[in-house]
Amino acid sequence: NDVIPESHKFHLMASDQLLYEQPSILRGRSDVVTVTPWLAPVVWEGTFDPRLLDSVYRLENITVTATVFAVGKYVMFLKSFLETAERHFFVGFKVHIYVFTDRADEVPRVRMAAGRQVTREERKRGDARRSVPPPKPTLTVRSVAGSERWQEISARRMELIQSLLEELPPAPRGYVFCLDVDSRFHGRWGSESLGALVAVTHPGYYRDPRSRFPYERRPASRAYLAPGQGDFYYCGGAFGGLLQEVHQLAKTCRHNFEADTQDGIEAAWQEESHLNRYMWINKPTKVLSPEYLWQDFKPQTPEVHIIRFSGVVKNYAEIRPNA
Ligand SMILES: CC(=O)N[C@H]1[C@@H](OP(=O)(O)OP(=O)(O)OC[C@H]2O[C@@H](n3ccc(=O)[nH]c3=O)[C@H](O)[C@@H]2O)O[C@H](CO)[C@H](O)[C@@H]1O
Ligand SMILES: [Mn+2]
């Protein structure tokens, strides 16, 4: 006599067929903090069971949208970004990637990895609701204007993300991640990263006191954070969450960035500064550890057991339209 709630909108529901390692509330990662002071999980390798989470979210029929911008010479990063996304990003789920570029004819054709197909074994043990294998990830290319300033290209992403999300059909189980293109996946990035509002701690600052975070420090900017404010330094290169939440974020950051421009001020790190201000007020419901955005030039640290996504080393002078 199973208890079948009318709706499981507000809690996770698992199949009783799935057996996994017994969880412990005594043992776990003790070298890192795995929960914020507002009780949001901080996702590190070893804090979650990927099979359990995948099975939970497969019952939910979720869709994952990703946005990536490749304007000007940054189109050169698309091939490896897309190829590695195929191998590691939400494998087994409905994934839709939107590429924004001013060089549509240079977007590489990327072959879909076999790992995308649901295996026969998975189909056998899955329930009826998922007897149909999820479709292969799809890719949509959108044309955007180029620019003479990289700062503008980077910041304008908020505006384009906002309008994309206004066009997408509303989906209560729809998630979106907004990612830098000059990066590659090296390991799993999957359902463990899902949350209403998701931020990634910047790999360059997660060991630093907040006084050293490169927040916008001029009170005239709408991205201003005063000394003593700010939780973590989050990166502009990866954030996400539910469609409605990310829409709110993009709309707010765009509005504040443009209002600043009217006042003749550009935040220290453009939309990243505004994102940090936003996340100070609107606490993320899930924080991803720097495993989710590393930098290739940075030696791996002991607490980082796996690098999932990492920025490639690039020659700024060569690829950016301005220095
Ligand atoms: C890892 C990380 O958190 N990176 C952030 C950081 O610098 P980054 O040095 O990582 O910035 P970046 O040069 O990668 O630019 C950000 C993104 O804008 C796009 N782009 C940029 C220039 C260009 O000519 N063409 C183009 O397509 C592209 O998707 C790129 O990945 O600070 C920026 C502030 O503005 C952004 O917040 C970046 O997300
Ligand atoms: Mn980047």
What does this entry look like structurally?
This protein is α/β, with parallel strands linked by helices and 323 residues long. It has a single domain (42-319), classed as Spore Coat Polysaccharide Biosynthesis Protein SpsA, Chain A, CATH 3.90.550. The protein contains 7 helices and 11 strands. The strands form 2 sheets. The chain has an 8-stranded mixed sheet. A 3-stranded mixed sheet has the order 6-11-10. Helix 3 (120-125) links the parallel strand 3 (94-101) and strand 4. Helix 5 (243-262) packs across helix 6. The longest helix has 20 residues, at 243-262. It is globular, with a radius of gyration of 20 Å. The termini are far apart. The relative contact order is 0.16. The protein binds uridine-diphosphate-N-acetylgalactosamine and manganese (II) ion (MN). Uridine-diphosphate-N-acetylgalactosamine (UD2) binds next to strand 2, helix 4, strand 8 and helix 6. The active site is at residue 272. It comes from Liparis tanakae (Tanaka's snailfish). This is Globoside alpha-1,3-N-acetylgalactosaminyltransferase 1. Pfam families: Glyco_transf_6 (PF03414). Keywords: Glycosyltransferase, Manganese, Metal-binding, Signal, Transferase.
- Lateral strand order in the biggest sheet: 1-9-7-8-5-2-3-4
Q: Characterize the overall form.
A: globular
Number of separate structural domains:
1
Alpha-carbon distance between the two ends = 67 Å
Helix content: 25-40%
Gyration radius (Cα, Å) is 20 Å
CATH architecture: Alpha-Beta Complex
Output the number of helix runs.
Answer: 7
CATH names the topology as: Spore Coat Polysaccharide Biosynthesis Protein SpsA, Chain A
CATH class (first level) name: Alpha Beta
Classified in CATH, the superfamily is Spore Coat Polysaccharide Biosynthesis Protein SpsA, Chain A
**Bound ligands, each once:** uridine-diphosphate-N-acetylgalactosamine, manganese (II) ion
H and E string: EHEHEHEHEEEEHHEEEH
Q: Give the number of DSSP strands.
A: 11
How large is the share of residues in beta strands?
15-25%
Q: Unreliable runs, pLDDT <50, ≥5 residues?
A: 113-123, 125-131
Keywords: Glycosyltransferase, Manganese, Metal-binding, Signal, Transferase
Organism: Liparis tanakae (Tanaka's snailfish)
Protein name: Globoside alpha-1,3-N-acetylgalactosaminyltransferase 1
Membrane topology: Single-pass type II membrane protein
